[in-house]
């Protein structure tokens, strides 16, 4: 019959429309603004169409998600910032679009380099969010952020991030990437234990 | 909605409060623009795909009044510059912008449109669309996720709220000049450079010699 | 190399003794051919030896030797390894005979080599620039050509560390822009010539004298809702019928290759994401294969990594074809509803990519010798859920929704026909080639990675029209699901077997051509290494670019409205077309 294909297609459209409402009714209020509601709506079992009600609700960010990089600092007993970065420059060397600028500090007395960055700039108008800096940093000092709400009205004053803007506490990093930070913590602990054992042997 | 628009400052007698709403012209004007900013259907590169995803069901920017994307610049209010602006394309982009009716806004989506992005060093890439057009909101990211784009569009709406009919540039007495369209010469030519072209060429020649 | 190809090579050497010589540079393969004998050699290769598929043509600038080289990769459409041959000409006056008359598929690639390298192809019917505009000064891929923002020949740049002297490149420029003009240039004496040249070429067609009709030249794009980005077509019409059509591209030419030759090998991986931005995993795959060929350590890749690579590449194929079908329906006028349904499924695949690689589109997941990291916990179940339950169900639904639709059939059947002979001659690849009845799939014809372990069919249809290209894509999604199911069942488990990625490595001098069957067809990467930290030549054989060569052939004689869906059925992505 001519027109059968079109009717069949219309049936599919109708089903999509209908499915969305059936789920709405079935789930009631739980479907929106709850974690399980969002998880269900973006799962393989979801039927109908799904809209995330941004900004009231957000999609869960997977751990590996990467946006622009940030620098991690620890806090010592006195509450002072201890920056993990040693300004070794690996991130600047490995950066594909070359958007990282690092100024190494020098000891004012001896003139020798000190393993702390005096300045650290990232031009986010060049950054391609590839994550190489975080991947190859041997000190777990630069990591990829989960915060994507960075829109600004003026890029010339805002979009070259300096050291102050890039620094975020280690607690924040542990929060957004719990598995990775645990893994790195274990690796560091293991390394230190080995070092201590080697010292003892001597 | 009406609470937001209803400005205090004028006392409405209690018996009239459910009947009358008082607002300022600016507020109602901004409210109207804010919820009817139609983007132009105009994709340049990778970011355009994220823009399409934002228009699709999961993110759905019609929730913000960006109901339909218009392929014609004459029916569009917002130009989402979604991707790398190349020298070969920039004359067309400027022409499209000139064809948009006021009020018009430009959103630079992603690193490329903001400042050249990873391809900045390339010989055919313009270092940001703001070299030619006035940009209202910059969204970093490569590409910005749909939620980042939505955030940028909300920023744009917030900006619209702060505007006033008295001082927006398209209601001034002097007519608005169209942006001169760049020309494809031996390299990209900006007509705005022409008055000082010879001087600048001389300056770059001496610079080259020094280097 | 198998015994059969070895004897074949011996036959070729015997047949062309004196004309060709073995390329004896270390790490290089194939033959060098005298420029004068090139046409004779290529014709005989096609007619006598069955090498009928000219896959890639590209230039290389050997500045230290003062030579320009044109490299050809040619295949048999029945499968097997490539035959590589090269022509070397002096750099000062590089002239090579054009092969367009024998292999029409060389058309755009030769124009690209002229545009970027300044190699002149004698006898080319339309010898114009293709990516840059007519009148642009210089040939930018030449090694001694430098752009305005030039900093150094190789990354990393010195200004980044340890000085940290931050600045924006444009601030150092006199014009405050990314521009550089020839010394004696003045804007007063300049008249742009590109458009005039283009349009005069289009109008110069004989009209019917008796009927007093006139041809109309119509321009579509680069800003047009149906050109899939910044693509442009100029068509000469007789009434509504297309007499001649010329694609115009380069509006998204982002200098991928020039930047790629400055990058280290590793840095190029995230740049390949941005080629065909709908299928970044496949791009990674092709590039990584090419460099691994150079490194010579293909055997060291752990099995699990190989499986992960295949799984990701197949998910990419599905998401790309979903988008392609949605976009084709958009072009047909079914505005956004089919696209909406396709994107809904695509989002679920992107969720996996985001969880695995960290980004929805720009995955940057493959590394030399493996992948960036193992699958994070939970993603395996997500993938199983999609491959075994959701996708088969949804693809059937898409099939039910569209395939039998009478309007689609009326619009698509018999439109944009490409015969098998034409498809091979035009070097069409991927679904375009297979819809024309040529069952050529790199996964089968020249297996790479672990594709030889899976059971799947090469999707093929025989009419060569738009409808068949749609059907081939649908079939391919089903085959991809089959591969995924086998791969997900067979993926070996292991702890920490993927190793740690390296950021610096020594790539030995030589050349390599790595190719994969991307969603759009054969995606090849031609890399020449000189032993330094960055490639000497880095070329992408882009399927969307070369498939467009056949566009005007497919459109001629059809209505102008059909040009839109023919373009939609090729499924181009401008990031790859223009690079």
Task: Give your account of this protein's structure.
The complex is a heterotrimer of chains A (202), B (211) and C (579). Chain A is an alpha+beta fold and 202 residues long. Chain A contains eight helices and seven strands. Chain A folds into two domains: 2-42, no CATH class; 69-178, Alpha-Beta Plaits (2-Layer Sandwich). In chain A, the strands form two sheets. In chain A, strands 1, 2, 5 and 7 form a four-stranded mixed beta sheet that branches. In chain A, α7 (170-176) packs across α8. Chain B has 211 residues and is mainly alpha-helical. In chain B, 33% of the residues lie in helices and 8% in strands. Chain B has seven helices and five strands; from the N terminus they run αααβαβαβαββα. Chain B has helices at residues 2-5, 25-34, 46-55, 90-99, 110-115, 146-161, 197-210; strands at 78-82, 105-109, 137-139, 183-184, 188-189. In chain B, β2, α5 and β3 form a beta-alpha-beta unit. In chain B, α2 (25-34) runs antiparallel to α6 (146-161) and α3 (46-55) crosses α6 (146-161). Chain B is globular. Chain C folds into three domains: 3-122, 2-Layer Sandwich (Beta Polymerase, domain 2), CATH 3.30.460.80; 192-248, no CATH class; 256-578, Orthogonal Bundle (Cytochrome-c3 Hydrogenase, chain B), CATH 1.10.645.10. In chain C, the strands form five sheets. Chain C has a five-stranded mixed beta sheet with strand order 1-2-5-4-3, covered by helices on one side. Chain C has a three-stranded antiparallel beta sheet with strand order 8-9-10. In chain C, strands 13-14-15 form a three-stranded antiparallel beta sheet. In chain C, α7 runs antiparallel to α8 (303-332) and α8 (303-332) packs antiparallel against α9. The radius of gyration of chain C is 24 Å and the shape is globular. Chains in contact: A-B, A-C, B-C. The interface between B and C is large, with 57 and 66 residues.
Assigned CATH architecture of the largest domain in chain A: 2-Layer Sandwich
List the secondary-structure elements of chain A in sequence, H or E. Answer: HHEEHEEHEHEHEHH
User: Total number of β-strand segments of chain B?
Assistant: 5
Question: How helical, in percent, are the residues of chain A?
Answer: 25-40%
**In what range is the share of β-strand residues of chain B?**
5-15%
Average residue pLDDT of chain B: 85
Residue ranges of chain A: pLDDT <50 for 5 or more in a row? none
Q: Which stretches of chain B are low in confidence, meaning pLDDT under 50 for 5 or more residues running?
A: none
Assembly state here?
Answer: heterotrimer
The total count of helices of chain A amounts to 8
């Amino acid at each position: 019959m001519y027109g059968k294909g079109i009717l069949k297609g219309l049936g599919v459209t109708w089903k999509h429309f209908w499915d969305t409402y059936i789920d709405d009714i079935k789930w009631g209020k739980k479907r929106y603004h709850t974690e399980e509601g969002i998880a269900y709506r973006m799962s393989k079992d979801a039927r109908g169409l799904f809209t995330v009600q941004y900004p009231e609700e957000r999609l869960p960010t997977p751990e590996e998600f990467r946006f622009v990089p940030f620098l991690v600092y620890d806090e010592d007993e006195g509450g002072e910032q201890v920056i993990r970065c040693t300004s070794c420059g690996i991130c600047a060397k490995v950066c594909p679009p070359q958007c990282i600028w690092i100024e190494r500090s020098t000891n004012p007395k001896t003139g020798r380099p000190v393993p702390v960055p005096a300045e650290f700039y990232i031009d986010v108008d060049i950054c391609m969010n590839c994550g190489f800096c975080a991947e190859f940093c041997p000190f777990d000092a630069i990591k990829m952020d989960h915060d994507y709400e960075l829109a600004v009205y003026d890029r010339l004053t805002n979009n070259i991030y300096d050291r102050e803007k890039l620094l975020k506490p280690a607690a924040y990093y542990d929060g957004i990437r719990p598995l990775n930070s645990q893994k790195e913590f274990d690796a560091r602990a293991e390394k230190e234990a080995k070092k201590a054992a080697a010292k003892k042997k001597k | 909605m009406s609470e937001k628009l209803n400005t205090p400052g004028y006392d409405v007698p209690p018996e009239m409060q459910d009947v009358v709403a008082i607002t300022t012209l600016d507020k109602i004007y901004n409210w109207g623009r804010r919820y009817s900013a139609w983007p132009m259907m105009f994709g340049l590169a990778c970011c355009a795909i994220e823009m399409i995803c934002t228009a699709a069901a999961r993110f759905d920017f019609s929730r913000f009044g960006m109901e339909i994307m218009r392929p014609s610049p004459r029916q569009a209010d917002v130009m989402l510059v979604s991707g790398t602006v190349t020298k070969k394309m920039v004359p067309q982009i400027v022409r499209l912008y000139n064809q948009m009716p006021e009020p018009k806004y430009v959103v630079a989506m992603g690193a490329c449109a903001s400042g050249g992005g990873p391809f900045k060093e390339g010989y055919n890439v313009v270092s940001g669309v703001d070299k030619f057009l006035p940009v209202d909101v910059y969204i970093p990211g490569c590409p910005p996720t749909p939620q980042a784009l939505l955030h940028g569009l909300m920023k744009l709406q917030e900006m619209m709220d702060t505007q006033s009919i008295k001082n927006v540039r398209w209601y001034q007495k002097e007519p608005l000049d169209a942006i001169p369209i760049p020309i494809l010469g031996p390299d990209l030519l900006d007509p705005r450079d022409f008055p000082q072209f010879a001087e600048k060429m001389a300056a770059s020649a001496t610079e080259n010699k020094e280097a | 190399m198998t015994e059969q190809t070895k004897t074949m090579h011996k036959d070729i050497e015997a047949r062309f003794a004196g004309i060709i010589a073995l390329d004896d540079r270390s790490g290089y393969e194939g033959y060098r051919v005298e420029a004068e004998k090139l046409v004779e050699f290529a014709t005989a290769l096609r007619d006598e030896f069955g090498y009928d598929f000219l896959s890639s043509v590209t230039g290389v600038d050997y500045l230290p030797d003062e030579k320009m080289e044109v490299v050809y990769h040619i295949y048999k459409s029945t499968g097997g390894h490539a035959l590589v041959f090269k022509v070397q000409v002096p750099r000062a006056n590089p002239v090579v005979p054009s092969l367009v008359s024998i292999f029409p598929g060389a058309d755009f690639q030769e124009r690209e080599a002229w545009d970027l390298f300044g190699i002149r192809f004698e006898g080319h019917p339309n010898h114009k620039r293709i990516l840059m505009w007519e009148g642009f000064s210089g040939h930018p891929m030449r090694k001694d050509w430098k752009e305005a923002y030039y900093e150094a020949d190789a990354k990393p740049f010195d200004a980044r560390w340890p000085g940290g002297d931050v600045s924006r490149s444009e601030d150092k420029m006199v014009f405050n822009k990314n521009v550089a003009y020839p010394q004696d240039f003045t804007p007063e004496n300049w008249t742009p010539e590109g458009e005039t040249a283009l349009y005069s070429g289009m109008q110069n067609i004989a009209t019917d004298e008796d009927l007093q009709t006139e041809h109309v030249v119509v321009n579509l794009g680069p800003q047009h809702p149906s050109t899939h980005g910044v693509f442009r077509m100029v068509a000469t019409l007789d009434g509504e019928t297309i007499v001649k059509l010329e694609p115009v591209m380069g509006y998204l030419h982002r200098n991928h290759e020039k930047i790629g030759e400055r990058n280290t090998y590793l840095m190029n991986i995230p740049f390949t994401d941005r080629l065909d931005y709908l299928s970044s995993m496949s791009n990674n795959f092709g590039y990584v294969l090419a460099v691994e060929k150079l490194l010579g350590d293909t055997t060291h890749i752990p099995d699990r990594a190989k499986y992960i690579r295949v799984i990701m590449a197949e998910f990419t194929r599905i998401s790309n074809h979903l988008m392609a079908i949605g976009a084709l329906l958009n072009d047909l006028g079914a505005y956004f509803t089919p696209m909406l349904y396709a994107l809904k499924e695509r989002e679920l695949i992107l969720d996996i990519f985001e969880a695995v690689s960290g980004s929805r589109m720009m995955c940057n997941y493959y590394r030399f010798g493996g992948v960036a990291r193992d699958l994070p916990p939970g993603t395996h179940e997500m993938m199983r859920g999609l491959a075994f339950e959701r996708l088969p169900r949804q693809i059937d639904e898409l099939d039910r929704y569209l395939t039998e639709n009478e309007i689609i059939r009326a619009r698509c059947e018999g439109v944009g026909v490409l015969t098998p002979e034409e498809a091979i001659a035009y070097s069409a690849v991927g679904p375009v080639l297979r819809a024309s009845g040529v069952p050529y799939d790199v996964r089968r014809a020249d297996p790479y990675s672990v594709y030889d372990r899976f059971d799947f069919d090469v999707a093929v249809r025989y009419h060569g029209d738009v409808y068949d290209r749609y059907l081939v894509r649908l079939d391919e999604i089903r085959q991809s699901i089959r591969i995924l199911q086998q791969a997900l069942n067979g993926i070996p488990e292991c702890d920490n077997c993927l190793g740690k990625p390296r950021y610096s490595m020594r790539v030995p001098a030589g050349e390599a051509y790595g190719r994969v069957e991307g969603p759009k067809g054969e995606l090849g990467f031609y890399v020449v290494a000189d032993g330094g930290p960055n490639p000497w030549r880095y070329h992408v054989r882009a399927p969307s670019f070369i498939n467009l060569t056949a566009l005007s052939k497919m459109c001629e004689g059809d209505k102008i409205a059909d040009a839109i869906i023919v373009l939609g059925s090729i499924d181009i992505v401008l990031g790859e077309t223009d690079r």
